[in-house]
Amino acid sequence: MRALRLTAWQAEPEFVEVPVPEPGPGEVLIKVAGAGACHSDLHVMEWPEGTLPYRLPFTLGHETAGWVEALGPGVTRPQPGEAVIVYGPWGCGWCYQCTRGAENYCQRASEIPYAGGGLGVDGGMAEYLLVPSPRLLVPLGDLDPRRAAALADAALTPYHAIKKSLAMLRPGSAAVVIGVGGLGHAAVQLLRELSPATIIAVDVAADKLRLAEAAGADHALLADDEAAAEIRKLTAGHGATLVVDCVGADATMATAAAVAAVESDVAVVGLAGGTLPLRYGTLPWDASVRIPYWGTRTELIEVVALAAAGRLNLHVETFPLEQAREVYRKLRAGEVSGRAVLLPHG
Prior knowledge:
This protein has helices at 39-46, 96-99, 145-148, 156-163, 182-194, 206-215, 227-234, 250-259, 297-308, 324-332; strands spanning 2-6, 14-17, 28-37, 58-59, 64-71, 83-86, 116-117, 120-121, 128-131, 137-139, 174-178, 198-203, 219-222, 240-245, 260-268, 288-290, 316-320, 339-343. With 346 residues, the chain is an alpha/beta fold. The strands form four sheets. Strands 3, 5, 6, 9, 10, 17 and 18 form a seven-stranded mixed sheet that branches. It has a six-stranded parallel sheet with strand order 13-12-11-14-15-16, sandwiched between helices. The chain has a three-stranded antiparallel sheet with strand order 2-1-4, with no helix packed on it.
């Protein structure tokens, strides 16, 4: 089968012919329906050797859904043919965090040379994906796995970030989403469905702001020198109770700090490598800065339930797997609206 693999650091991925894997004891083979192209993939490609503990080569694609193709010895469910989504973070499966479903915070992560399928070990940008345990699969029911693939990260990551702050978002409060790409437009939808807060979206591109409005933002602002002042104006000078920075660059983190309210949360989920100096005066009183990572398996089940109920509808652009390299070029240039998903089987 053809697989899109990272074969060298700071290089473009390549299509390589690899054998279809056979599931061993405890493993599940998935026929891939869709694999999302994430901006974090670009960082993995761009970072120099030694930045990550991953071993090359490996197939990209950490956002995957499909159908169960075959079960390894000892596995009895899910049944072949069932539509499933793959929980992305793969931990040890035995520590406290993993046993409560939070493999994103595995306590033995430093001992494992990968973070999940597509991140150090073969992922979903191929016709088939070998999943090491059925614990990493969540049933999709009637959802189309081609379009549901993006729920595994683009929806789960902002859901995890927002969920911790929901109790703070009372009527009259405001939430700001910076960067309306794959994660950002999902964050806007989730805030609209789960909270009474006024939602303010910020981006550098007009088409992304239109996407934010379609997703339910009350206000969509261009990321310029006036954005922070405009947010303060929209919030009667108080600022935002929650800021979700889906970029994580110096400029966006500075904006997040400038618009945060007293007793607010700033959640930085973007991986652009920015810094936020922390000292008296850089943030309001009792403001907290968090760097959440992905989400728990239980939260993925909740995200799937929202999608199944029609309350979460990600904007997805689909492409044949053969166009993967072009999709990544479009993603790097900011030309993808919402989430791009690659379809190995059409």
